[in-house]
């Protein structure tokens, strides 16, 4: 595991933008942290760097927000599991079918424990200075692409 200090929301979005240079279809990136920790900021930075014009909405109510070329460089499903009460509900979302050719960005992955064991697991927690500490659990498939 590695830790990175993100001083402010702009640094959090910038990390997401830097991450965009390293993602590819079939990747899963999970984003953990309390409400307001910066999960959606990372996703927005990543999506903007992949070519999305305008600000990406939080998928809290839609649960899954999809982005496809030419809107972005590669297909992306931005998933927010905050409102998922039972991991069995995931089957209805069709995420397994998307894994071969789509990047999955998953907020609140703890709502589906063990569902994505090979994910790049990013956790955001408050830093004493008001920034964020990003902790990355880097799987073998990401080792050649890490650190960012």
TrEMBL record:
<keyword id="KW-0963">Cytoplasm</keyword>
<protein>
    <recommendedName>
        <fullName>tRNA threonylcarbamoyladenosine biosynthesis protein TsaE</fullName>
    </recommendedName>
</protein>
<keyword id="KW-0819">tRNA processing</keyword>
<keyword id="KW-0460">Magnesium</keyword>
<keyword id="KW-0547">Nucleotide-binding</keyword>
<dbReference type="InterPro" id="IPR003442">
    <property type="entry name" value="T6A_TsaE"/>
</dbReference>
<dbReference type="InterPro" id="IPR027417">
    <property type="entry name" value="P-loop_NTPase"/>
</dbReference>
<comment type="similarity">
    <text>Belongs to the TsaE family.</text>
</comment>
<keyword id="KW-0479">Metal-binding</keyword>
<keyword id="KW-0067">ATP-binding</keyword>
<dbReference type="Pfam" id="PF02367">
    <property type="entry name" value="TsaE"/>
</dbReference>
């Amino acid at each position: 595991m590695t830790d990175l200090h993100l001083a402010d929301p702009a640094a959090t979005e910038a990390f997401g933008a830097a991450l965009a240079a390293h993602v590819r279809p079939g990747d899963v990136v999970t984003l953990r942290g309390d409400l307001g920790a910066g999960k959606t900021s990372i996703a927005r930075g990543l999506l903007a760097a992949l070519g999305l014009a305008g600000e990406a909405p939080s998928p809290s109510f839609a649960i899954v927000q999809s982005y496809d070329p030419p809107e972005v460089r590669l297909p992306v499903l931005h998933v927010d599991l905050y409102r998922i009460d039972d991991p069995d509900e995931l089957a209805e979302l069709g995420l397994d079918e998307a894994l071969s050719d789509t990047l999955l960005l998953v907020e609140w992955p703890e709502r589906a424990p063990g569902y994505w064991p090979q994910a790049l697991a990013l956790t955001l927690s408050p830093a004493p200075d008001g920034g964020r500490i990003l902790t990355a659990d880097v799987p073998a498939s990401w080792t050649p692409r890490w650190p960012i």
